Amino acid sequence: MASGIWTPWAGRGVQGVDVSWHQGPIDWRALAADGVGFAYIKATEGEDYVDPRFAQNWADARAAGLPHGAYHYFTLCRPGAQQAAHFIATVPREAGMLPPAVDIEHRGPCRHGPTMSDVVGESRVFLDTLQAHYGVRPILYTTREYHDAHLRDLTGERFWLRSLFVRPSFRTSDWVIWQHHNAGRKRGVSGPVDLDQFRGDEAALARLMTPTGPST
Question: Which residues are catalytic, by number?
């Protein structure tokens, strides 16, 4: 039986985690054997930050055979095109990777320069640029508060929603991943880890994966 915190939705859909340098070294084979069917790994933030454990986590998840994707923390301090270029320079395009994800929840203010005024427009630039490069539309991670303040007019997208302990009550037809716990426990991770649920079975998850490898 998988370790960790029991939840009423356990066993429904494919269970996953999202990680960054905060989790420290991870035993990816142990994690994959503990009821985890996918993982999202933090890669970048803004236009110049790279998560210090991204490269190792990416390689180890691949070696463990665990479906995985990378995510970017979007700030309101640099244009979407600059942030997309930074992500593309950091994250390889590999056959079988999950769609890129973008975490849009930053409230600012920016330390240097103005905060972007057109969040939806800059977000679309970021999404379009990544889609052109990776061949798959990215997924948007957000919270209810941020969505209602900035993203209500964003249409036609797939969402990864943070809604701790309760099923999401917004974007009910649009979400594909639900982050339902922020302090789960899994073998292979020494401390707390975010827990997620994919809205579908393993076959549906496989259909999300990038079909092509590096461009030539």
Answer: 18, 103, 105
